[in-house]
Amino acid sequence: MGENKGRKVGEDPGTEKERKKGGSKLLPWIIIIVSAVVLVFALLQIFDIGGENIASCQGYETLRKVATGETEATQGGAASNAVDPRSRKIDFDALRAVNEDIIGWIYIPNTDIDYPVTIGEDNDYYISHSADRKENRAGAIFLDYQNEPDFSDANTVIYGHRMNDGSMFASLHKFEDEAFFRENRYVYLYLPGGTVNVYDIFAANVVGETDEAYTRSFADDDAFLDYLTKMKNRSAAAFNREFTAQDRIITLSTCVQYEDENRYIVQAVLER
């Protein structure tokens, strides 16, 4: 009687065992189905991201052709290093016909940084929209909206994503290599009217997302000079650079992989 305890009257003693056995066979199938669903979702996400990356690259290549009149794509999306960057011409009338928020063009030799620069009404829009105003996770290169659009502030902050495919501001991380840093010291910023601002890179470093490096204006000349000296001294590579209170700098900022709270910045001072 003890053997039949808990079993219905008339039930075959083997029925319960078969039911348990059937349940054990079903579990692996459930795991397989769930895994398949997760895999399909992940693949769709990858394809979606890959599609956006392709669209971003194609969109910016089109803008380069619009800006320069070039008919052939340039390798890596960057201008040829054989051409004197100071003599390069950017057609801002053509660019502003695409987007009036385009206020400049930034180029750093020996990197893939060769992009229009935008400014929005806030610092959110161009995180998820490209320079042609299309929604895209690669975003655009953009000024802090609190900066003057003519780059006249003591410190103009320029943001860009660190994309895994090496696009946007990912190339800034090349300056982590001191040898590269010392051999590649200039940023070229093209402005409407044919002006070419040439900036000499003097600092590169990892900072917190709210670091004082993002200070845009200063109480007085001494405060600005103290700031410049501090930025130079804490850089991974040091240079014997003298500053004046009349200097104007740019701070290029991008993300650090796996460190959401940090940013990587490259700072450069306008040549006198």
From TrEMBL:
| Single annotated GO MF | hydrolase activity
The answer, when asked if Cell inner membrane is one of the entry's keywords, is no
Which keywords are on file for this protein?
Hydrolase, Membrane, Transmembrane, Transmembrane helix
Q: What Pfam families does the entry give?
A: Sortase
Sequence segments annotated as region (Disordered): 1-21
State the Gene3D superfamilies in the record. Answer: Sortase
Under InterPro entries, the record lists: Sortase (IPR005754), Sortase_dom-sf (IPR023365), SrtB (IPR009835)
Q: Kindly list the residue ranges recorded as spanning the membrane.
A: 26-47
- Assigned EC number: 3.4.22.71
Answer yes or no on keyword GTP-binding.
Answer: no
- List the residue ranges forming a coiled coil, or say none: none
Name this protein carries in UniProt: Class B sortase
Encoding gene, per UniProt annotation: srtB
